Amino acid sequence: xxxxxxxxxxxxxxxxxxxxxxxxxxxxxxxxxxxxxxxxxxxxxxxxxxxxxxxxxxxxxxxxxxxxxxxxxxxxxxxxxxxxxxxxxxxxxxxxxxxxxxxxxxxxxxx
Amino acid sequence: xxxxxxxxxxxxxxxxxxxxxxxxxxxxxxxxxxxxxxxxxxxxxxxxxxxxxxxxxxxxxxxxxxxxxxxxxxxxxxxxxxxxxxxxxxxxxxxxxxxxxxxxxxxxxxxxxx
Lengths: 111, 114
Prior knowledge:
The structure holds two protein chains of two kinds.
Chain A: E1 3-5, E2 10-14, E3 19-21, E4 24-26, E5 33-39, E6 46-52, E7 60-61, E8 64-69, E9 74-79, E10 88-95, E11 99-101, E12 105-110
Parallel strand pairs in A: 2-12
Antiparallel strand pairs in A: 1-4, 3-9, 5-6, 5-10, 7-8, 8-9, 10-11, 10-12
Chain B: E1 5-7, E2 10-13, E3 19-24, E4 31-38, E5 42-50, E6 53-57, E7 64-68, E8 74-78, E9 87-94, E10 104-105, E11 109-113
Parallel strand pairs in B: 2-11
Antiparallel strand pairs in B: 1-3, 3-8, 4-5, 4-9, 5-6, 7-8, 9-10, 9-11
């Protein structure tokens, strides 16, 4: 069974600073995908970034980057230059055919 | 806008009733997934359809059923509703069904059972 652990229930970050959200996972599969989604207070789920288990380079998408350490089974999300609009809940997920989500981390960006 | 549409946006109903949630996937996506998000259980996978066929089942109750139609839209039917079924129900779609496919989520249907 797949499992995702997000140990930080809530984080505060100053505007324009970087923040790292932790995610560890447990799987016996060799081929899998790791995803991060953002859920603002309005409720929608927004896809941010994807990392494949066989990808050698860490994924980046604009201000989002994924620090993938396969041996440690971790896939931390780094948000650089935080903006007020980044305040949201962030979910890490692993995909074998369905997405299994972690409990999420709430990020609050302070001006 | 992800391109996935869900209707209705909000639904308020009473215990024991039956409701139908509707989802239209992104153009070209063959796979549809349903998820339930509640405060106590978090985000849970319910069921997946791929090109009209059921592909995988998760934590879906027997009172719930779903189908995907030839035009690829999907419906989630919830019957004999209980207070605990109150949740945000998401539909997501992806082009294919493998684990390397990003799933794009609709805006969700917020179900309140009174």
